[in-house]
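Supplementary notes for students who missed Thursday's class. We covered one full example, reproduced here. Read the sequence, then the structure, then the short commentary at the end.
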Amino acid sequence: MKKKTLIIIFLILIIIILGGARKNKDKIDTTPEQQTPISNDTRVLTEKGGRIAWYKGSVHDLIAYDAIVNNKNKNTELFTVRPDGTEKFCVTCDSDIPKGFIGQPAWHPDGEWLMVQAENEISEHNLYTHISWGVNNDLWLVKRDGSETVKIWDTPDGYAALHPHFNKDGSKIIFAERVPTGKRIPLGRAFNTPGGENQWDGWRIHIADFDMNAEEKLSNHITLFDDTGGMYETHEFYDDNTIVYSHTKNGEPYVDDIYMVDIDGTNIRHMVVSPTTWDEHGSFHPLRRELMAFMSSRDFNWNIQNGDKATDLQTELYLKNINTGETRRISSANEVLDGRAVVSDFDWNKDGSEIAFQVASLDSDKEPQIWIVEVDQNI
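Structure (token representation):
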């Protein structure tokens, strides 16, 4: 894809996503969600929702998610809700986390704290400082009742922090980090790409020890793939020694295959091999560890080598048995919605019987929803 075409695509997305001043007072709707059945195995959890974290411990079964709360500036806040749509609560509305883009939640194993991204005070509030890209996003902890917050990571100006996750016992975190490359692209400055550079390049994986009781919550920082280039995105800890992530080489403008790697950077495993399609968000079943869900464009003839663009994208969720290689589709958003759909961020419930996932309609002006699907694990 040519750089000029890429820039035009993202200019269109900026117009769609953003607008207005970021300091407008947000009117928060915390009305309980009325769940709508879609099919025998799928229902709508929320009419507005983005990135998702479903708590898997014994304390509760809340789903955390971010959602737009101001249609002018597209500010987001963090919410929790029960799987039946009741007890909807805005976690960050009255917190001291700076207003703007707040989201990408991850539950600490204690069930009381959440880690989130939040754009910082030097952010320009544009497409790339949105939580979906993470440029000038800091990492915060917030208590699930909103009563306490702690900033745990200051992102340097022009860097990015994206998709943070805890390991199972909460002793480590990972996130994808973008470091400025110093390589400008044509018209990059004009269209607010980070530092005028290719936003798909300069990424790596950042790992740190976490201690809730320490004054400095993060320590022993290490980074993986510093000199590899391209786009890295962290998906989860498979276990204490293994990370699931995606990687796209050479700054290409899409998300390529899914991998696993040991936390020391060795033993890379290629989990989804489909270099021309969009494949992202690999996440393993919480109990049956041979089953991995992921999103993909594979059924919709989307092919980066044919010049297909992000605006052409259609995706669904898939389930893969990594022992047998068998893969099948588990969502049907493109069939249900009137027009094209993109299924993206998702998370399992604690026993792996259901997945909550974000659905965006590309052919309407409706905001993304969160749906829940029952997962047939017979694979």
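Commentary. The longest strand covers residues 231-239. Residues 1-24 have pLDDT under 50 and may be disordered. If anything here is unclear, bring it to office hours.
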